[in-house]
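Section handout, structural biology tutorial.
Before the tutorial, make sure you can parse a SMILES string by hand: atoms, branches in parentheses, ring closures as digits. In the record below the ligand is zinc ion, and the chain has 116 residues. In the tutorial you will relate the predicted structure tokens back to the input. Do not try to memorize them.
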Amino acid sequence: MHELAVTEGMLKVVLRHAERNQARKVVGITLQIGEMSDIVDEWLRRYFDYLSRGTIAEGAEITIRRTPAVFRCEDCGEEYVVNIKAGNGFSCPECGTNKVEMVSGREFLVQELKVI
Ligand SMILES: [Zn+2]
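Predicted structure of the complex:
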């Protein structure tokens, strides 16, 4: 469900950009998605296929780049990358506190657009 709204928004951005550049067809879209984002690639691709039907973005190849989750410690200021899959938790590796904030990791951006 979440992916549907996100994909709809993404398609709008893509089409607006393509129109502005007088593109005839969108052939490739590169997305930058934070590793902490709960977007499921598979669903995003399916919704895109469905939503883009009949638009100039139909059949575009989607490339998804996951960007790492970066946190900053509120106590010592240390900035560090958290490997979500390793499951080591989010506490600061420098001083061990849990008072940390996320710097990046939830972004969703259209990074590149290939049009003809
Ligand atoms: Zn710290």
